[in-house]
Amino acid sequence: VRPGLRIAVFGAGYIGLVTGACLAELGHRVVVRDIDPEKVRLLRSGDVPIYEPGLGDMIARNKERLTFTLDVQETLNGAEVVYVCVDTPPSASGDADLSRVWSVVRSLEAASHLRAVVVKSTVPVGTGARVRAALDAAGLGHVGYAANPEFTAEGRAVEDFLHPDRVVIGADDDATAALISELHTGVDGPVVVMDVRSAEMAKLASNALLATKISFINEIATLCEKTGADVEDVARAVGMDHRLGHHFLRPGIGWGGSCFPKDSEALRQLASNTGYHLQMLSAVIEVNNLQKRRAIQRLKDELGTLAGARVALLGMTFKPGTDDMREAPSTVLAGRLLAEGAEVRCWDPMARPAEAEPWTWTTRHESPRSAVEGADAAILVTDWPQLKEVDWAQAASVMRRPVFFDGRNLLDPAVMRSLGFTYISVGRP
Ligand code: UDX
């Protein structure tokens, strides 16, 4: 690839911004387009609308090669490769809503220098074939198509993009596969080329298997509670087998985020559309729902009733190191607690209130200490490292009842009990 390949990126969400910034970092000239005027205004003025380590600096140092716009024509002007990074939310039927993908595809007739369209958005298997047909019908038969799914995790997306375990490129012709491979020159990781459908499936299968590991260890944790074993030791021993690996074996209150819940539902729906019911994935999803119901039930058992109880939720984002509230377990817990008549208060260092539905029903506090004051129970929902530094002895002394549910096994049971807490965690005796 000659330096300065011109790339248009549609969508300035987590994936679009990281993709755009990293492609500019690799030396390409990138225009990122979004439909949200406020987002584009922020980006143009040098602000980054999301929190992602390293992203702001990367955008700033590549500003010669990286621009942001609302205008489709400006985006496509001279573009040789179009990256589709728009969101594909679940529709009412459970299938992914691809309307934003289609709206990009419909605009491509205006791109006179176009060589390839690359879809990074997570889409059902078979989407590439439909896009291919639409391109052909629009007189764009000469334009290549590639699926290039994203495997980055939030909070380390820039790092994951530049140093991935693998880059998956699904293309049905060699020229497109070569073009997209070359475009990744400078990325430190192996490139695997396959057909479009397999690449689409690889993304869904990867996320489903990661979610499976978590649900599996969560079920083992439940059994540990019933048998007196300690799931932390069990997970450590299991993970040391290199065939299994220690990643994604941390028990907790369940998985959330922008990918696992949406992608596992989409894969289940995709299967059922083919007439096959995915047995394991259904159980994985059910265990994840159960995990949150069990947490509420255990708290209820401890307090007698949740009606009138004051409960503090510590950590609201779906995991630490992000401001993202999408499908966060905290939202499910808050909803159930409120339905049971509890008063809910919360603390989080980074969650973006505008996107967080529970903020409208709960009181947000500036510190964990202030959130637990006068509370009957606290639930540690997100394992923010700050929660390790809290003066828990003092926190216990200001609670009405020092009941503590450590939903991430972040703290030491012996220490917390010695401070006077009734301490409950996941799968530890
Ligand atoms: C995930 C995948 O890791 C990534 O490859 C994909 O592209 C998008 O989905 P992300 O959603 O950013 O990334 O978060 P991740 O760090 O994978 O965590 C997902 C959820 O699982 C979080 O709610 C987290 O708390 C939970 N989790 C993770 C556990 O409960 N236990 C674990 O051991 C690991």
UniProtKB/TrEMBL annotation:
It comes from the Bacteria. The keyword Oxidoreductase applies. It is an enzyme of class 1 (oxidoreductase). The active site is at C259. Substrate binds at F151, T152, A153, E154, K203, F248, L249, R250, P251, G252, G256, K319. Keywords: NAD, Oxidoreductase. NAD(+) binds at D34, K39, T88, T122, E154, K262, R326. Pathway: Nucleotide-sugar biosynthesis; UDP-alpha-D-glucuronate biosynthesis; UDP-alpha-D-glucuronate from UDP-alpha-D-glucose: step 1/1. One of its GO terms (molecular function) is NAD binding. It catalyses: UDP-alpha-D-glucose + 2 NAD(+) + H2O = UDP-alpha-D-glucuronate + 2 NADH + 3 H(+). Pfam families: UDPG_MGDP_dh, UDPG_MGDP_dh_C, UDPG_MGDP_dh_N. InterPro entries: 6-PGluconate_DH-like_C_sf, NAD(P)-bd_dom_sf, UDP-Glc/GDP-Man, UDP-Glc/GDP-Man_DH_C, UDP-Glc/GDP-Man_DH_C_sf, UDP-Glc/GDP-Man_DH_dimer, UDP-Glc/GDP-Man_DH_N, UDPglc_DH_bac. Residues 312-413 form the UDP-glucose/GDP-mannose dehydrogenase C-terminal domain. Its EC number is 1.1.1.22. GO terms for biological process: polysaccharide biosynthetic process; UDP-glucuronate biosynthetic process. Belongs to the UDP-glucose/GDP-mannose dehydrogenase family. This is UDP-glucose 6-dehydrogenase. It comes from Planotetraspora kaengkrachanensis. The gene is udg.
